[in-house]
């Protein structure tokens, strides 16, 4: 995608295809997400069947997020959820923000490359299963959308979606051709009151009976939102009932009190064009479960949409891991949610505010703001942190009155300073700023303040995680060999990839140990776990193997001695290990294994496969364990590949099949450049979005013959 503006013709063709898909599938709500240029986010491009405000929490969705649309593009498959219960089981965060009965499908839009995702939603009244014909129709529609996107790129007119999606009108469906006056007379004859809302929630029609029951003239209500024009309906519970009707497309009933004691029943009947409402006096003075009466409070309660948005963002903050994750979440989801154009996120460190992330600011401005004292009076950040009270400035004039220099440095027009405090302890400050003057309603201030507390706790956890990670990663890197020694007559290469879950560290290790001028030992191992304990035990195992090898000990005795040492240390973790002694003068390779996957031996392109090595027990299990020895000739051009199980283990794939696939790859790989060969081997494992295990790989090639 480019920064260009979509040509009207291309955009109209795409919108028409999208709208036709929504209509033909019978979906009540549809959305088209496009991948951002960096491929890391899905951006909402077009929406149909619901107002844009409903989609505010989901205009930008990280591809890695635990959400149906992200899973569809990430795994390149259609995600089908036949009920709200299925949604809750598979995607609890999404279900928490969409607590309505519904059926949902998310299908990848893929052509010459991945373009995005088509999201369709139906009322829960439709069948909870999808037929093959329906699946085919949706896939066909996704293909057509992909072709239209490709045509737009060819013409250089595909624009990156903005912060607000295009909203297409829903199909009108079948309507009666009754004359207006007859319809009006019919409605007026009905008891009680009748009114209509569009999908945005605004009044489009009110009967005289509805005006009498609501206590206002039609002219005062038409075009307004009920919770804005009727203060006694200004409660999130009532707006939520409207949202439930729009999303579920099912009738909804609620009871509200018109002050002082007039209880009214509201019956909502939704369809694709809006909501028809019947209003009748409640049958009792006080309903059995009355709606809460509005108090005389001066602070307006948060809109239901804001509450769901807060719930969604709060759930997202519980899943962040490191400090950069917090920065990215605030920048990618929280900042757009409040319409801000810039962000500064800082932490309190040694009495100073250290900026850990920013968006929308000139680097020179950040350089001037970084390192200010926590109690600075230069900007409102110091006072906000010191008092724990947020500060909001709607115009530059407001800022200049309190802090004359601050507005000149940032050149922004409005600011929200949100102190990040955990248990009374300041951990930093989050600043949202705007390019134009911006009002901060009480509702936004309340939600921002609530989010600041959640950001503070997430940031505090993330800083602790990053500290532990840095310590563990430093320990692991110190224990792995910095470089492999040069061995005459032998070409070697190695690689280590950490797991992408947990702390991004592990217990996998490798080593190459020169044993005089004519021999070398190669070792690879895997300590159970992915934390500091695993990294520490890995160092002990590697040191023990190195010490036994230096004495010229046979492979089986190297493993036996290391095993006895681990028995004395009594670790709770077990270790697999493969040790090979290469006698370059005697042209022999002797191996012993402690429960480790077998090495791949390549003698030629037509003679490659796993070596049959009889393994002994894992190290640390049985102090008296015996480790069988396997011996093979060191033939000219022989290539040995040692690896850990993180390279071959796949969900639902037999281990022998994975090893056979690795051998097939090595048989046909170009072995003249071992580093390139390793890159090809780990490329597939390393490209998976989430690796549950770390990977170590060591390749040795007898360099006497370069022609195989």
Q: Could you characterize what this model shows?
A:
Helix content is 37%, strand content 26%. It is an alpha+beta fold and 708 residues long. The strands form 5 sheets. Strands 1, 2, 3, 4, 5, 6 and 7 form a 7-stranded mixed beta sheet that branches. The chain has a 6-stranded antiparallel beta sheet with strand order 15-14-13-18-17-16, sandwiched between helices. A 5-stranded antiparallel beta sheet has the order 9-8-12-11-10. Helix 17 runs parallel beside helix 18 and helix 18 crosses helix 19. The model is unreliable at 172-178 and 284-302 (pLDDT under 50).
Structural classification: alpha+beta
Helix percentage range:
25-40%
- Regions with little confidence, pLDDT below 50 for 5+ residues: 172-178, 284-302
Distance between the termini: 46 Å
Keywords, please?
28 strands; 6-stranded antiparallel β-sheet; 21 helices; 37% helix; 708 residues; 7-stranded mixed β-sheet; alpha+beta
Would you kindly provide a brief summary of this structure?
37% of the residues lie in helices and 26% in strands.
Topology:
Elements: H1 8-25, E1 29-35, E2 41-48, E3 60-62, H2 68-75, E4 79-81, H3 84-90, H4 92-97, E5 102-110, E6 114-123, H5 132-154, E7 166-168, H6 180-189, E8 193-198, E9 203-206, H7 208-214, H8 218-221, H9 226-229, H10 236-248, E10 252-258, E11 262-270, E12 274-281, H11 304-319, H12 323-337, E13 342-349, E14 352-359, H13 363-369, E15 372-373, H14 380-387, E16 391-393, H15 396-402, H16 404-410, E17 414-422, E18 425-434, H17 442-479, E19 490-497, E20 507-514, E21 519-527, H18 532-550, H19 555-569, E22 575-583, E23 588-594, E24 600-604, E25 607-610, E26 629-633, E27 639-643, H20 655-668, H21 674-687, E28 695-702
Parallel strand pairs: 2-7
Antiparallel strand pairs: 1-2, 1-6, 2-3, 4-5, 5-6, 8-9, 8-12, 10-11, 11-12, 13-14, 13-18, 14-15, 16-17, 17-18, 19-28, 20-21, 21-22, 22-23, 23-26, 24-25, 24-27, 27-28
Helix pairs in contact: 1-5, 11-12, 11-17, 12-17, 15-16, 17-18, 18-19
